[in-house]
Amino acid sequence: MPHDPNIEYIPTVVIGAGQAGLATGYHLARRGQQFVILDGRDRIGDAWRSRWDSLRLFTPARYDALPGKRFPAPTRTFPTKDEFADYLENYARHFELPVRTKARVRRLSRPNGRFRIDTDTGSLEASNVVVAMSNYQEPWIPPFADQLDPDIRQIHSRDYRNPAQLRAGPVLIVGAGNSGAEIARELAPAHQVWLSGRDVGQLPFRIAKPLNQVILVRLVLRFLFHRVLTVRTPLGRRARPKLTSQAGPLIRVRRSDLEALGVTCVPKVAGVDGEQPLLTDGRVLEVNNVIWCTGYHPGFSWIDLPVHGEREPQHHSGVVPSQPGLYFTGLHFLHALSSAMIHGADRDAERIVGEIARG
């Protein structure tokens, strides 16, 4: 029974209706658990719909399914972000998962032993809470960005949609990971583009070729990322600090591709000189646009519980020992390097739901 009869009680509340949250809902439903999934957006999948227009998944469709429902596309094609968003929406409908949209969680606390979840649409109490969200919630932009010329158009990659948002003239993309490289490739035909940042390396093969897709998924994603690089292996434990603090290798776009398009790769941005970006090698770039592909804050300040760490919440493979009944899924390297990926969502969700069922 709830401590406050005016507050709705649901045994398990899942926060987030992305792939991690829906996979968790699938396994909760299979075990006959009573639960609800909360999502702050208007529609399931909107977190994907709001990303840049040309974005495609890095894995072919045959490997982009959540448990119980295949992805409805030719197996070797790479789905668009809107196709995947629609898949998530149809997935929830197909399994009749109890998702409440427009229910952004503003505070998670534990005032009386049970969890209290305060949302835009009211409050709930729960014995279990699964925070099914990535650590990429709030954009991070360096403080010196405010010193740039006010006429420079500045956009974080979260808010970038297409080239029409930019002013005519040169573009500086800060951050040379996958997002920065893909956006640079899109902008290069119409703009002078500088790509700033550390060379993160690249896969040694092209993922569009059918044989290479097999190598990518079976060897890299399903074996190396899913089985080898986990918190249970010595190699995974040694690699985890580095892998959670810096960008991974380029997957679809190579630096040679960018150079062939006229993109100039330059060192990191160190600050501002004369209201223009200053590089670590002392060069000052005259630009009309800056796109910040500089990553995110974890964005969990709304969790009013003593679980906050330096880069991520404190947990053991998604289980929070200090707060029995609180769990995480969807975090980068939660249990394995695959945890924040589509194919890793199922295993983590099934394991967390097993913990809940054991109570």
Outline of the structure:
The protein is of the alpha/beta class and 359 residues long. It has two domains: 191 residues, FAD/NAD(P)-binding domain (3-Layer(bba) Sandwich), CATH 3.50.50; 109 residues, FAD/NAD(P)-binding domain. Helix content is 26%, strand content 19%.
Annotation keywords:
FAD/NAD(P)-binding domain, five-stranded parallel β-sheet, 359 residues, single chain, 8 helices, alpha/beta, 2 domains, 26% helix, globular
CATH superfamily of the largest domain: FAD/NAD(P)-binding domain
Total helical elements: 8
The end-to-end span amounts to 17 Å
Tertiary shape = globular
**What is the total domain count?**
2
User: What is the name of the CATH class of the largest domain?
Assistant: Alpha Beta
**Name of the CATH architecture of the largest domain:** 3-Layer(bba) Sandwich
Which residues form runs of ≥5 with pLDDT under 50? none
**Overall average pLDDT:** 93
Helical content class = 25-40%
Helix-strand pattern: EEHEHHEEEEEEEEHEHHHEEEEEEH
Number of strands: 18
Structural classification: alpha/beta
**Order of strands across the main sheet:** 4-3-2-8-18
CATH topology of the largest domain: FAD/NAD(P)-binding domain
Rg (CA only): 21 Å
Question: Beta-strand level of the residues, as a percent range?
Answer: 15-25%
